[in-house]
Amino acid sequence: MKQYVFLILQWLALCIVHSCVSGPENPVRVAQQPAILPDYTSVTVPNDIAPLNFTLSDSSFSALSAELSGPEGTSFRVTGRKEISIPAKKWAKLIKANTGDSICVTMWARKGKNWEQYAPFSIYISNYPADYGLMYRLIAPGYELYSRMGIYLRELHSFHQKEIFVNTIIKETCMNCHAVKKGDPDYFNLHLRGPQGGTIIMINGEVAAYETKTAQTLSNCVYPYWHPSGRYIAYSVNTTRQMFPMSADKRIEVYDEASDIVVFDNNTKRLISSKLLTTNKFETFPAFSSDGKYLYFCVSDQKKMPDEYQEVRYALCRIAFHPESGTFGSVMDTLINAPAMGKSLTFPRPSPDGRFLMFTMADYGTFPIWHSEADLGLLNLQTGEWHLMDGINSSETESYHSWSSNSRWIVFSSRRDDGLYTRPFIACIDEQGRTGKPFLLPQKKPATYYSNLLYSFNIPEFITGPVKLDIRKAAKKTARKTSLSWDGLKEEDKSN
Amino acid sequence: MEHLFRYINKAIPFVLGMAVFLFFFLYAPGLIYFQEQNQLFLYNRDYFLQTAMHPGGLASYAGAFFTQFYAFAWSGALLSALLIVLAQQSVAKLLVKAGAKTEYLFLSALPALLLWRFLCNENYLVAGIVAQLISLGAVLSVLPLRHKSMYPLFAAGIAIVVYLAAGGAFLLYLALVMLYELYDRQMRQSGRLIPLFAVTLLLAAGLPLVAGMIFPYSSTQLFLGTGFYRYPMENYHFQYIFWLLVIVTVILGPRLPAVRKVRTMTAVTFGGLFIVFFGGGLLLHKAIEPSLEEALEYDHMASKQQWNRIIRHADKKSPSTPISLTCLNLALVKTGTSEDKLFAYFQNSTEGLIPSFGGDFTSPLTTAEVFFHLGLMNEAQHYVFEAMEAIPDHQKSARCLKRLAETNFINGQLGVAQKYLGLLKQTLLYRKWALYATEETHPEWTLYKQYRLPGDEMFSSGNMQAILKNLVLHNPENLCAFRYLMAHTLLNKDWDKVSAHYALGGMHYTSVPWTYQQALAFEWFQKEGNFTSVPWTLDETIITGLQEFMKTLSGASEQQAKFVLEKMFRHTYWYYLFFIF
């Protein structure tokens, strides 16, 4: 009996040995760096990012091998038949040890009987820490109808993704407008649409649900942006429509027939606004400055819609905001007159340290995700100069973006992969506004994850910790939501 | 006599299986196709994890596995028959274990007939049957262990497995396990009953509650089941009606008195069989909605481009639904017979030609077929995508992905096309198509590229005629668009535009097609009042026919005229113009 067991063990050992990929022997050297998927060559990453697993874009290989090394720490080799799956602990040790420096990746691919060795590439490990994770909505890039969707939290240091809210819990529910205050999950906003709709606002564990449509406003409140104090949330109210181009290079055009900006005051549970934010023009995309003293927003001249949809162009403006009194300034400054350049500026997002403001720029319109020419731009709030972020833009859509809490990382939506499915890219940005090469959010199985995924990553936001929201309790709250009321236009008292 | 009853009890599954097979294969193939077109079964680990890793997930996965074979009527009908027979056999075994007499085993057909009835609802999923089978199978596997000391622990462990595999159907398992405990005198006397009952209640309530902390489903779904019906959080009665029937059958069976006399035994058996099948017949009578089945069959034929088959169907029985009519009109256009035969069939305005967007997960697919063949790729893509997103249980669709791969390919969106092809390569039945999907193997794609409209024009279903006209102007060789333009003009009763639109494509014909002659003659006559200097060659019968028609029309009341004219002119443009809708 014992000898049978021994034989079986021997056989098993042989199987294990032979099933391992044998290392590269006498490789043929290739001068170029490998074309890997995702492209992690020369990217800059935080020192606690999940392993950057990758594969070769040319699928004519039978095995891959990669050696990861750095000036500090222990180098190690990884092999795989379909992809390079880097062991998490070894990876974490290596990149931690090389914070502020770079690691080197040498790669081999077996094609036919031979191994090819590629020129090594570097991955830069930033000194700047990143936040805990990303929050985003996963939704199909569709038209008007929707299937399964949810808001998810993904840890940056692992591959773990957890649902915050999924529409399998409440029938026929759409959700959007997830937003946190400078990445702080204790200040959380979410809007649900459907039979049990409402806006859920959670502040330090206290959950409330509101009906935000009032008789004086155009619609429910959307496009939320928290005031740094946590007392106010700026929203847009819009009547949004879609139309469908027949040309091959466009799928959808989204436009507003009307839009205004309102601010929710959590102390009074009312909506306020300013006459500058509720004109006949299209005011939208509000964002408070990092010190809370200004409200940035986008405004376009009123146009006859939908006929003049290609003439809708938004400029970046701001007005003063006085958080103590909940009043607005009476002067509107134009910071970037995009319409004068024949462009439209949307999604203004100031950095938490107050130095910069990132935005999206397209040829026209209010919904840049459907514009392949849409790119990201950066405004220096101190100098007033701005530029397009050529280091991170692509020939496809770059659209929504957000800052990490320390202003050193940005995440943005890009359709550079295939032109339709939006993917989250992260890039490092320094105090001078210079960016590192962006990297795609890493996944455990990079060879198949994104190619098999039929959902887009929508509105990615950095977040500093888990969202402690009980989905079922929050869903029950919407059944007994409170109706907000309108508190009128609040102008600053100039006599003071 | 024992032989006879054994033979009868073997014949029941055979007869039942044949009946189910023939029913679905001959009478309801549309329902079979409908199951397959609303899912995407992928042969990869992620799909398995995503589908199976929730209560009832294994049943959903197995159900989806079987459903992929519903792409063919014969295999779908066969699988339905096998699953239903398996249910019948399971209940029969349960009856035997409960002590029912052989002559009463016909009762096992009742729950199976109910499942058959469920499958006649187009939204009841195969996974629903699989879940019940898992539950029944689990009961049958634990019953032999009833007298073992570890049985309660084992049965409780299996309950957890059944819950994870079959979801809410574990309640059936728990109920049956308790029932068999009650039957067993030894068990009743052992004092084990009460603790077992307590554990059963604990499991029945506790497992869904624990699952609620992990899985994002509503409480009702976690208790009563997911994945058995295409509309989540609805129609739970499909679950508990079946469970109740099984329990009642298992309770009733053993209680029916033993029959000693052979004659009585025969009467009971055959009488019972007769009642069961008569009852089944009543249950299944009108179980299939004919108009729905018709629409699904037509849509399937259109998706497979079986144009002549569609026309043969219509010749036997005129289509009665907008979807069927849309498919028929598409078939007439594609076969070049719409010019002559448009009004050989009942027409119902332009809604039977290019229906408006329905917002559901079925009708947009048919409309998308029309758009595709017209060269309106964006709209074909739009409608197919919406139809897929509208699938109520959040499934994706292989049929939709295939069409989306095509439209994206034609539109030059190769990255997206490759993505969809990549997914289809991970299926069993679409893999081959996806592997060889290139412009070389699909020369019609090159043609459709040429049909696409340039410019920034927006689609509007209210502007369809103008769009069709633009398609023809952009590419006069787009005969499909021309035929649709003419059909739209006729069905929309725009009699004063017929000649202008005919001029855009008339050069394709050596002689003016029959239906167009009718319309041109009418327009000319309305404008000119006579038939002199008619610019087209019109058949004499057209002119005399129109004259007779107009004479009768003007000489009688509308109702009288309709009655008189119906016999001779029912299948003419003029009759449609004046008397239809």
Task: Note the main attributes of this structure.
heterodimer, A: 496 residues, mainly beta, Immunoglobulin-like, Neuraminidase, seven-stranded mixed sheet, B: 581 residues, mainly alpha, 68% helix
- Share of helix among residues of chain B? 55-70%
Chain-averaged pLDDT of chain B: 93
What is the helix tally of chain A? Answer: 4
* Class computed from helices, strands and strand pairing of chain A: mainly beta
The first-to-last residue Cα distance of chain A is 97 Å
* Biggest interface between chains: A-B, 40 and 47 residues
Silhouette of chain A: globular
What kind of sheet is the major sheet of chain B? none
* Helicity level of chain A: under 10%
Spans of chain B of at least 5 consecutive residues whose pLDDT stays below 50 are none
Q: Beta-strand level of the residues of chain B, as a percent range? A: under 5%
Q: In CATH terms, what is the fold-level topology of the largest domain in chain A?
A: Neuraminidase
The assembly state of the depicted protein chains is heterodimer
Task: Please summarize the sheet with the most strands of chain A.
Answer: 7 strands, mixed
